[in-house]
Amino acid sequence: MAVMDIITLPDPILRKQSLPVERIDDDLRRLIDDMLETMYKAPGIGLAGIQVGVDRRLFVMDVSREENNPICMINPEIITRSEELNVHEEGCLSIPDYYAEVERPKIVTMKFLDRFGKEQQMELDEVGATCAQHEFDHLNGALFIDYLSKLRRDRVIKKFAKLAKQKEKNIL
Ligand code: NI
User: Which one of 25, 91, 144, 158 is least enclosed by Cβ atoms within 10 Å?
Assistant: First the structure.
């Protein structure tokens, strides 16, 4: 297994629409294991393919405190969303050290393929539901800061653009 580089704001790759996974084979399972290792090492509770430069519709997550419940969703769909909403503070490995409260449906049912290509359905609640929806958004090029006011969003993007520029200068 290997730890991968995580792409951060304002890299335009993060805004790309991911494409369906067409083949579930050993190469993909290796990628999934690498993504899980990268997520645990960060540490984070979710990581989408696009965040490591793979524009395919898959993500990994683990919201257990013991980090012993890895879930991988391939070609996921949200098939039900509760009317009841919930507010959770969210962060993102692609937007390091920034957190904000986001309101989303409290319960969702996801349909997806597991790492062996078997179709699965899973109901998620609370932080699990928030995490799955956040990761699902990544597959469509959406970020949690898109739920904030334009003013707040622009401020975050500007901050990260400045940081990226500084980093570039230091490398050159
Ligand atoms: Ni994220």
Answer: 25
CA of 172 from ligand 1 middle (Å) equals 29
Distance 103 CA to ligand 1 centre (A): 15
Q: Which of 22, 101, 135, 168 is catalytic?
A: 135
Render pLDDT for 74-100 as a digit per residue (tens, 0 to 9). Answer: 999 999 999 999 999 999 999 999 999
Q: How far apart are CA 75 and CA 6, in angstroms?
A: 21
Distance (angstroms) between ligand 1 centre and the Cα of 50 equals 10
Confirm whether 83 is a catalytic residue: no
Domains and CATH numbers, the chain: 12-171 (3.90.45.10)
